[in-house]
Design goal:
With about 325 residues, the chain is an all-alpha fold. It has 16 helices and no strands.
């Protein structure tokens, strides 16, 4: 599958397009003033430097942008002005979709109390779809993948909220939902592969990225155990490290988690649970498809081995830190 004629027909190079913070500011500036201001307050702080007010590296912290950029470089897709425009648009639309679900997740978790924001994020989804129309024809497989990914992430956010507020757990289902939760973060990478005519690469990369995002979510769980417990959610890491002891008290569960971190091998088993799917995915991924992406995933997998020691050093915070959220 190649990029649509619209991308190839660009007469003037547009590679000096605004970065993500500037694009976001411009987009929100076209919204209703109240809606744009509310969205900006939620989103722009995450894309700017507290020191300079700008991000010198617009991709910093967003590994889902590093991956499509690496893939585009590996395929030579960014070697021409139209290809660079395509890549920048894919990264921008990926950010727009991310922002939609960041707002949705904040609403579901109660971190944001303005329900109108959920409606206002339609602006971001429309912008994402509009950018894609510059590069993918109506019959392209990209569109089905785009819609399926958005649907999967939206469904996973709501289902996980219910699941993680219950002691009646299916951990296997939870990990499947973690893959769906991150489905929308694969859109730009899929777009690069499809635009380059490398459907074969996407078929290998998709399950590898699923495994990567499941592992990354488990690591995030470990970091967020305390905050999630204070918000009434027992995330997968907290469940695994405290099962079968359950309590309605965040303090009690945190104490059990801290005790098991200090006295058992549950942390290592949890990290094995994160790493094993990555091992299988990497075994099925041809490194030569894109060495930079393969090496990025492999480096993350190796990092899981050293993570246990770092986490154990911080384990005491689980039982001693004050509640962060009521």
């Amino acid at each position: 599958m190649t990029a649509s004629p619209a991308a190839a027909a660009i007469a003037e190079p547009r590679c000096d397009r605004l970065g993500i913070p500037e694009r976001l500011g411009a987009l929100l500036g076209r919204c209703d003033p109240g809606a744009g201001r509310a969205l900006a307050e939620r989103l722009l702080p995450a894309t700017t430097s507290s020191v300079t007010g700008r991000r010198p590296d617009a991709d910093r912290g967003f590994s889902w942008l590093r991956i499509p950029r690496s893939l585009a470089a590996g395929f030579g897709l960014d070697a021409t002005p139209p290809g660079r425009v395509l890549l920048e648009d894919l990264c921008w639309l990926q950010y727009c979709v991310y922002a939609v679900f960041r707002i949705q997740d904040d609403l579901v978790d109660g971190e944001c109390d303005d329900p109108t924001l959920g409606v206002q994020t339609n602006t971001l989804l429309v912008e994402a779809a509009h950018r894609a129309t510059d590069h993918f024809a109506a019959g392209s497989p990209f569109w089905q993948l785009f819609q399926d990914s958005v649907d999967a992430t939206s469904r996973a956010i709501l289902t996980l909220r219910r699941l993680q507020r219950s002691t009646d757990r299916d951990p296997g289902e939870e990990l499947r939902l973690y893959a769906e939760l991150s489905a929308s973060l694969k859109i730009a990478t899929a777009g690069v592969a499809l635009a380059a005519g490398r459907d074969d690469a996407w078929r290998q990369l998709s399950p590898a990225l699923d495994a990567f995002w499941v592992a990354a979510q488990i690591v995030d769980d470990l970091r967020d155990v305390r905050d999630d417990l204070d918000a009434g959610a027992i995330n997968h890491a907290a469940w695994f490290l405290s099962h079968p002891v359950f309590s309605s008290s965040a303090e009690a569960i945190a104490a059990v988690v801290a005790s098991n971190l200090a006295t058992t091998d549950r942390l290592e088993r949890l990290l094995d649970r994160a790493g094993a799917p990555m091992d299988r995915a990497l075994a099925g991924l041809d490194r030569e498809l894109c060495p930079a992406v393969y090496d990025h995933l492999a480096d993350y997998r190796r990092g899981l081995v050293d993570l246990a020691g770092v986490i154990r050093q911080r384990a005491s915070r689980l039982s001693t830190a004050p509640a962060g959220r009521g």
